[in-house]
Design a protein that fits this description.
The protein is built from 10 helices and no strands. By secondary structure, it is mainly alpha-helical. The chain has a single domain, classed as Orthogonal Bundle (MetI-like fold), CATH 1.10.3720. The longest helix has 37 residues. The chain is elongated, with a radius of gyration of 23 Å. The relative contact order is 0.15.
């Protein structure tokens, strides 16, 4: 008979030290990838090897060379220069979505969680109704109303991500408002705004930062999907999704047209998801 608390014969228990080391490695890799993407966006904003919109029909679909590190597309445009500009579009959308969704979701979730009662019921039923739609489907509908373009896509994806932030904020505020330090602050005469600013928001910040990192990667993928469908960034501007859409007819002739923007999208999503996992592990003592 096996005693409780002892490992079963033949079953290896996980090593906490190895798990912690692996989480630290994931966070380091995620930060490296995220930093690389942001660096590409900054470089693309101030410098590109060639004008991304300049066409050279004598070098159409040319393979990667020293002059064109990522080759050229069907119009002879430098793929590396367009990838740098695409990084700027991706980072702009990611940051914009995190700000829009974080601000609106934080306000709605905090109001519902702190006030409770009828306010909570009305706001949460509204959020639940929005949450029933997948974010990409909602973004598609909003872009159809707002029209194509980088700013319109940013607003559409940001509004589609509001329910996730609102539900998370509400659950955090409900758990925090029952803590003794909040009751003590209320008994000491602190106003609702002072309690929220000094006690609730600082304690909820780590989880919201993790959600913002997830929203960033989701926004990059959604922007690429909308641009691929022709509803996002419009030519001659550059976007990784638009580059994939333009490359789909040349996959066998010039596969590099799709490989490099696709790899950048994958690296961005992987990097920010690893950052979110690492930050979640650091902010939750139960996972340390």
């Amino acid at each position: 008979m096996i005693e409780r608390g002892r490992p079963r014969p033949g079953r290896r228990e996980p090593n906490p030290l190895k798990l912690s080391r692996r989480r630290r490695t994931n966070l380091s890799v995620g930060l490296a990838l995220a930093t690389l993407v942001v660096a590409l966006a900054v470089i693309g904003a101030v410098w590109t090897p060639v004008d991304p919109a300049r066409m050279d029909m004598t070098h159409r679909a040319a393979p990667p060379t020293a002059a064109h590190l990522f080759g050229t597309d069907e119009f002879g445009r430098d793929t590396f220069s367009r990838a740098l500009k695409g990084a700027g579009s991706a980072v702009e959308v990611g940051l914009g979505v995190a700000v829009i969704a974080g601000t609106l979701g934080l306000a709605l979730g905090a109001l519902a969680g702190y006030r409770g009662g009828l306010v909570d019921e009305v706001l949460m039923r509204l959020i639940d109704g929005l949450y029933a739609f997948p974010p990409l489907i909602m973004a598609l509908a909003l872009v159809a109303v707002l029209g194509p373009g980088l700013r319109q896509v940013t607003v559409a994806i940001g509004l589609a991500e509001v329910p996730a932030f609102a539900r998370l904020t509400r659950s955090l505020i409900i758990g925090l408002r029952q803590q003794l330090f909040v009751e003590a602050a209320r008994a000491a005469g602190a106003t609702d705004w002072q309690i929220a600013r000094r006690h609730l928001l600082p304690n909820a910040a780590p989880a919201l930062i993790v959600q913002a990192s997830i929203a960033f990667s989701t926004a990059v993928l959604a922007e690429a999907a909308l641009s691929f469908l022709g509803l996002g960034v419009q030519p001659p501007s550059a976007s990784w999704g638009l580059m994939l859409q333009e490359a789909q007819s040349f996959l066998t002739l010039a596969p590099w047209m799709a490989i490099f923007p696709g790899a950048l999208i994958a690296a961005t999503i992987l990097g920010f998801n690893l950052v979110a996992d690492g930050l979640a592990e650091r902010s939750d003592p139960r996972l340390r």
